[in-house]
Amino acid sequence: LTFEEVEGVAFGKVDHPEPRPYRFEALGETLHVYEGRIVLKASVLNRRREGFVVKARLRYQACNDRECLPPQEVGVELPLKYLDNVK
Fold this sequence. Notes:
Layout: E1 2-3, E2 9-11, E3 20-24, E4 29-33, E5 44-46, E6 52-60, E7 72-80
Antiparallel strand pairs: 1-6, 2-5, 3-4, 6-7
């Protein structure tokens, strides 16, 4: 997951869930994978004092026990509101 830079905004390190080992017989090796729905989190520090749009790209590769599809990339835009006095 990568974020497009926004002036006055800083993005923290992306936290990933713990992957699990999975044996790919076709490859003859074990790789660490994510399975099912996963949640990625990152902190956002907004020095702009106004709302803005987060633009992010996620690169992933889907596989099963016999084959892997080519890597894919998907983009997302998420509008964020500025909330003053949030504790």
